[in-house]
Amino acid sequence: MSGGFVPVENFEVGVIGAGYVGLATGACLAHLGYQVTCLDNDEERVTSLGEGKIPFYEPDLDELVSRTVSAGRLSFAGTDGLAGVVRGADVVFIAVGTPQGEDGAADLSNVASAARQIGRSLAGSPPRERPLVVANKSTVPAGSGDYVSMLIGEGAGNEDVADFLVVSNPEFLREGSAVYDTLFPDRIVVGADAREPLETMRVLYEPIIGQTFPTQLDPRPKTAVPFVSTDLASAEMIKYASNAFLATKISFINEIAGVCELTGADVGRVVNGIGLDGRIGMRFLNPGIGWGGSCFPKDVAALRAAAREYEHETPLLDATVAVNERQRRRVIQKLQGELHTLKGKRVALLGLAFKPNTDDLRGAPSLEIAAALGAMGARTIGYDPVAGKAAAKAMPDLKVAFEPYGALDGAHAAVVVTEWEEIRHLDLSRAASLMREPRLLVDGRNALDPGAVRKAGLRYAGFGRG
Question: Using one digit for the tens of pLDDT, what is the confidence trace for 323-340?
């Protein structure tokens, strides 16, 4: 991690919400040299964070929090301390959850509560030299910036109060690399309907903008981080459109993988061929079980719901979701193809978190597959290097092993659900010696070498691999 960032102005920053986004944002801004207070309504979480205990698994974040707390640049408080933070802050971020409602639309109740609290804090604060910038990092539908402005005004008791300006500053963090993505982003997007808050945010991010640095994924040096300034609604739509496009890209390659299986083509070679086209690229062309997590399902659903409000159909997004749901069923079909009946069969799920380098089970394919197998009479045992205990709590009927070979012992079949490095590098001969016939390995992420799997004495079933 680079230590060469220099803040151009020592802003004071408040962050409402100490989840993945809020904590990564707060810790990274403190790392840049700013004075940051993260606020959360969960007092137990606030206490734990003050003791340096991170409530979830995220590489590098615990070290960053510990270092910036020790340096006196990062502190934590309950939301009852918001008024004091607002009085001294230049920028306050709203980074609270916007969970999916029953109709698929984003639930903005947490955002509304934060906005009203900011308004009440402004009502009791002395006159400011410059307006407070309220930066919405929560993922919200287009038009929410005006809604937040209205609620802050209502909370202040004066809808025309002029001591604040709202901007949209969507996050593009990947769980498992949140610290890196905050400090070395592909772009910074800020939307506002006035010039002053845009300039404030540009100054805040100046330590990141224009830096030259190598990335983990691309050895070529990057020479600038684009600062995309736009209007409020467009910035909000950029976040939804980005996630919807990436989800569509994954579903597209899963459609191609299905055709590859029927025709004998190899989807890996197809990906190599089309990914070299600069208009397409290699990333997110990974066939298999499909996407999960909290962002893609929620954001695609919210975008579809927003379109329905205007009686606008979204057949492409509808198909994106349908293909993704089908991929889970294809795992079951591949198991049935070799095991025939699943009753009484033992199936190992290798990887339970929705992706590597996180313990997050929200939208995890493993839970959906485990539930389907259980309903069909299979005995399922799972393994994950960090999410095992959480999975056992989420699904009491799911047995959990705490090393991969314990899960494989006596299994008729195994499914690679999450491509953790230790699963990519399984001792396949040992796995074969522990499993029972037919010793089927369903590679739900196309993470293993089919030839090596077969050479070890296992049957291999991937997705679209000819």
Answer: 999 999 999 999 999 999
Q: Is 414 in a helix, a strand, or coil?
A: strand
Q: Please give the span between the terminal C-alpha atoms of the chain, in angstroms, as a whole number.
A: 41
Q: Give catalytic status of residue 295 as yes or no.
A: yes
51, 59 contact by CB (below 8 A): no
pLDDT of residue 177: 94
Q: Look at the chain and report how many structural domains it folds into.
A: 2
Q: Regarding predicted confidence, which is higher, 53 or 8?
A: 53
CATH of the domain at 320: 3.40.50.720
Last residue of a domain, one of 230, 252, 274: 230
Task: With respect to residue 279, please indicate whether it lies within any of the assigned structural domains.
Answer: no
Q: What integer pLDDT is reported at residue 416 of this predicted model?
A: 98
Over range 160-172, report the average pLDDT: 88
Q: Where are the alpha helices (DSSP H) in 61-211?
A: 61-70, 82-88, 109-123, 144-156, 178-183, 195-204
Confidence (pTM): 0.91
Residue 77 lies in a domain: yes
Residue 81 near residue 22, CB atoms below 8 Å = no
Tell me the C-alpha distance between 449 and 385, whole Å: 22
Mark whether 216 and 326 lie in a shared domain.
no
Among residues 236, 81, 77, 89, the alpha carbon closest in space to that of 163 is found at 89
Name the catalytic one among 28, 38, 260, 295. Answer: 295
What is the total residue count of the chain? 466
The residues, any chain, with a CB within 8 Å of residue 9's CB and separated by 6 or more, are 203, 204
Name the domain boundary from 230, 257, 278.
Answer: 230
Query: How far is the CA of 371 from the CAs of 154, 295, 358, 387, in angstroms?
Result: 46, 22, 21, 17
Query: What is the span of the domain harbouring residue 214?
Result: 12-230
Report DSSP state, residue 344: T
Helix, strand, coil percent values for the chain (each to nearest 5):
45, 15, 40
- Taking only the tens place, the pLDDT of each residue in 371-421 is 999 999 999 999 999 999 999 999 888 999 999 999 999 999 999 999 999
